[in-house]
Amino acid sequence: MSRARETRKSPRKTVVTVGLLAGLTTAVAALAWPAAAGPADAKGTYRAAQANGPGVTNSSAPSGKVLWTPDIKAGPATFPSVQCAKGNFGVASDAVKGKVWRARQAGGQERCEVVGPTLKSGSTFYLGWSSKIDIRDSNSRYVFQLKCSPSSGTANHPIELDATNGRIRLQSWTYKHVAVPLWSAPVKNGEWHSYALKIHAGRTDGTIELWFDGVKQKFANGATKYTGTTYDGTSDYLKWGSYHPSTGDATNLFTSPRMATTLAAATAGS
After folding, report:
1. Which positions make up the signal peptide (predicted)?
2. What is the rounded CA–CA span in Å between residue 113 and residue 104?
3. What is the C-alpha to C-alpha distance for residues 230 and 260, in angstroms, rounded to an integer?
4. Which of 5, 60, 66, 228 is the residue whose CA sits 20 to 30 A from 155?
5. Residues 30-53: pLDDT tens digits?
6. Is the separation of the CB atoms in 191 and 212 below 8 Å?
7. Regarding predicted confidence, which is higher, 109 or 2?
8. How far is residue 55's CA from residue 78's CA, in Å, rounded to a whole number?
9. How far apart are CA 100 and CA 31, in angstroms?
10. With the C-alpha atoms ordered 226, 192, 11, 124, is the resulting torsion angle positive or negative?
11. How far is CA 178 from the centre of its chain?
12. 202 alpha-carbon distance from chain centroid
């Protein structure tokens, strides 16, 4: 499948920028992240929560600490920035998850994404969230990215989850911008699925581990941990939503992502 390189867009120079004050608060909190996170569940599984509770920053959580999560009660201003056409990102009500985020990428638009915190090279952390997609064409969409700056001459997006033709796929991209397909699974429009990642940020010694629907996954080589590029350039950050220029509409509903020191804390809101 042909992959277009994403054109670098600063998370501070967006189509619609909201919550400058909230973004500065989040960035300050990001600087305080520990260099290492706590251990994963010994059995490699967790029980995904059914409700999406309100988000808090730098809060205590059972079996770990939440380092960052957007507060859904505060609306889009809780994200450092929004890269989306006006009115296409906000809060929606879902019969299963309650209040969730809704990113709608209309046909012909390049993206509808929100930007998370800036990462620190050498850090280790867990991410957890749930997502329900609705893609109305056969083109791929990035629904999650770990994005690096600058885009040129780097891995561009060292980690990404993309959806197309009824499958979700996890890929890593090397510092030479070569894709490394790691894992895929079938998904359908209108289905909720939970995702959790353990990431160690490094240019050549980075690692990735994945849990899908509460179960730790094996990668294409049979291992549960991938070592390679998970950080590149001078500044890396996280993104959720829908990205790739396409003709049809795509919508991504997702619970508030949680970055935490343990798997249990990261998945508590999924």
Report:
1. 1-29
2. 9
3. 17
4. 66
5. 333 333 444 444 344 444 433 333
6. no
7. 109
8. 9
9. 27
10. negative
11. 20
12. 17
202: closest CA among 139, 135, 131, 119? 119
CA Rg value for the chain: 17
Domain ranges of the chain: 35-266
pLDDT, one tens digit per residue, over 178-218 is 999 999 999 999 999 999 999 999 999 999 999 999 999 99
Tell me how far apart the alpha carbons of residues 269 and 174 are, in angstroms, rounded to a whole number.
Answer: 31
How many Cβ atoms sit within 10 Å of the Cβ of residue 54? Answer: 13
Bridge partner list, 250: 105, 135
Other beta carbons within 10 angstroms of residue 107's beta carbon come to 13
User: The tokens of 262 are what?
Assistant: 């343990």
Single-letter amino acid code for the residue at 210: L
Q: Which amino acid is at 151?
A: S
Q: Give me the chain's average pLDDT, please.
A: 84
Tokens of 120: 């620190």
Q: Specify the pLDDT at position 128.
A: 98
In sequence order, what are the residues at sequence separation of 6 or more whose Cβ sits closer than 8 angstroms to the Cβ of residue 139? 164, 244, 246, 247, 248
Place of tokens 């920035």: 81
In the chain, which residue ranges form alpha helices assigned H by DSSP? 20-30, 263-266
pTM: 0.80
Strand ranges (DSSP E) for 20-173? 59-61, 64-68, 81-83, 89-94, 98-105, 111-118, 124-135, 141-149, 159-164, 167-173
18: Cβ contacts below 8 Å, ≥ 6 apart = 76, 77, 79, 81, 82
In total, the chain counts a number of residues equal to: 270
Residue in the block written with tokens 């990428």: 105
Structural fold of domain 35-266: Jelly Rolls (2.60.120)
